[in-house]
Amino acid sequence: MTRAWATLWTRSQAAAADRHTIVDLGTPSPVLMERAALCCAREALAMRGDLPVWALCGPGNNGGDGVAVARILHGWGVPARAFLLSERLSPELAQQVALAEKLGVRIDRGLPPGQEEAVIVDAMLGTGAAPPLRQPFVAAVAWANAHPGPKLAIDIPTGIDADTGAAPGPVFAADRTVTFVRSKPGLHVTPGRAAAGEVVVADIGIVSQDMSNETCLIDPVEVARTIAGLRPGSHKGERGHVGIVGGSAGTPGAAVLAGAAALRAGAGLVTIATDDREVQAQLLAHRPELMVQPRGAEPVPAAKVLVVGPGLVREADRAGLAALWLEDRRPAVWDASALAEIAVRSPMPRVITPHPAEAARLLSARTGESWTAARVQADRPLAARSLATVTGAVVVLKGEGTLVAEGARLGVCVSGGPALATAGSGDCLAGVIAALLGRGLSPWAAATAGVHVHGVAGERLVVGAVALDIADAIAAVLAAPEETHPRFPRRVLG
Ligand SMILES: NC(=O)C1=CN([C@@H]2O[C@H](COP(=O)(O)OP(=O)(O)OC[C@H]3O[C@@H](n4cnc5c(N)ncnc54)[C@H](O)[C@@H]3O)[C@@H](O)[C@H]2O)[C@@H](O)CC1
Ligand SMILES: Nc1ncnc2c1ncn2[C@@H]1O[C@H](COP(=O)(O)OP(=O)(O)O)[C@@H](O)[C@H]1O
Ligand SMILES: [K+]
């Protein structure tokens, strides 16, 4: 089970929790704001060295947090100022301004003058706002990003959509974001993830009645436990036999990579099914550990799990895949060009691993709507969930901040980096997930553990590494899975 505090709240879930805590339970709103600001002030203190702290404040309660941060720091003897960017002030913000002024905190209207280096605190907009940004925040974000000094965002960097991670305009580029009670999907989904910096979850006593945990981070603690629970297997047959339907003339490499990654992820045996004699010869030359056999009506009958798609570029090599999708009872990972053969929901255990362009093609074909890769990227959670609905599969939507969807459930991967952006890296991922399925994990568990492990393996490589290096790094990650990850939020209590 994912730890409760690793679940993610959407904008409406956060607002409902605020309302419940304040209205139903009677916790005064200023008490929550004080606790929120105290956590942010501590983080600003840790980031400042001997720099002053400047809070850029919007019109709502996010702005109220900013003024309270300036007041708390001022009380600790830190040179801290607040800058009000809007004419309009919410009642909580007005209350904070009045209190801060009584205590001698300097509060100005408009952006700070000059180029003095300072910690810039983004208290412009929080979870009450929805992008695209309007003025004066478009200009304020550009000013802040160009100003020298560390950047701290309160709750969410201004400009990021808290629910989707989309950034339809300029975005505050934070080094650190302090978010309240639960993190938000937008801090971990591309492109929001890059703008959030280090994410700190501050528990400030807001409680929710909503016990659903449909959206969560893929928790490295859970992944490590899942991996530790895998049986080593006393002989190779017990660790699962993976069959790979892949490799066309001229592109045998993708099948080799999927196979190599499956072996590194603990598959006992890997057999590649292809009818092309030239491909068969090339496969064996590439990786002698692999086995090769003709495809036939039922590919690799001895295999417990299939990977379908790596390198199947020739149309003739995709004949019969539609029936395989629908009828083959074995758990299977479907990838690359094989995804074009999916015409209906499959009742069988399936994991599909599209990148955004493949996801768009599949969604267009299956929904009759017009999807492009850009539309997928504009709301990755929606795209992943829609694909899960129309295919019946566990969906791995690849890319920075990979998503895993099963029905309405969504897992967000924290691991992975630019070294993974290399030809064949996706083939390795398919092989890892298949190996984990073969070792007895459910499609959800295999997909979530698979993307996390693949991401960590990629992080251990330098940019310029090739896909076979990823496959080879996977064994080391599985041998000693770590329960922490630098991009998994740090939790503070306030
Ligand atoms: N008492 C509470 O409920 C607590 C609230 N907290 C803070 O309050 C925040 C939420 O506060 P609010 O609900 O007041 O909302 P925000 O402060 O996030 O922003 C709402 C304001 O932004 C404006 N706005 C919305 N979309 C915009 C856009 N695209 N461009 C420009 N302006 C836009 C709206 O007109 C509105 O005035 C949280 O993110 C958190 O920082 C914390 O203090 C914790 C306790
Ligand atoms: N910048 C990045 N950060 C994190 N992961 C990435 C990044 N770029 C690519 N990846 C990952 O690398 C893999 C690439 O897969 P794919 O697009 O299918 O490429 P290929 O077809 O070359 O194998 C996916 O798992 C994807 O999530
Ligand atoms: K903010």
Automatic annotation (TrEMBL):
What cofactor(s) does the depicted protein rely on? K(+); Mg(2+)
Q: Which GO terms describe its molecular function?
A: ADP-dependent NAD(P)H-hydrate dehydratase activity; ATP binding; metal ion binding; NAD(P)HX epimerase activity
Q: Cross-referenced Gene3D superfamilies, in alphabetical order?
A: 3.40.1190.20, YjeF N-terminal domain
Q: Which residues form a coiled coil?
A: none
> What residues does AMP bind to?
K398, G399, E400, G401, T402, G426
Which reaction equation describes what this protein catalyses?
A: (6R)-NADPHX = (6S)-NADPHX; (6S)-NADPHX + ADP = AMP + phosphate + NADPH + H(+); (6S)-NADHX + ADP = AMP + phosphate + NADH + H(+); (6R)-NADHX = (6S)-NADHX
Instruction: Enumerate the residues binding (6S)-NADPHX.
Output: 61-65, 126-132, 155, 254, 311, 355, 427
Function of the protein: Catalyzes the dehydration of the S-form of NAD(P)HX at the expense of ADP, which is converted to AMP. Together with NAD(P)HX epimerase, which catalyzes the epimerization of the S- and R-forms, the enzyme allows the repair of both epimers of NAD(P)HX, a damaged form of NAD(P)H that is a result of enzymatic or heat-dependent hydration. Bifunctional enzyme that catalyzes the epimerization of the S- and R-forms of NAD(P)HX and the dehydration of the S-form of NAD(P)HX at the expense of ADP, which is converted to AMP. This allows the repair of both epimers of NAD(P)HX, a damaged form of NAD(P)H that is a result of enzymatic or heat-dependent hydration.
Quaternary structure (record): Homotetramer.
Give the protein's recorded name: Bifunctional NAD(P)H-hydrate repair enzyme
Q: Which organism is it from?
A: Nannocystis exedens
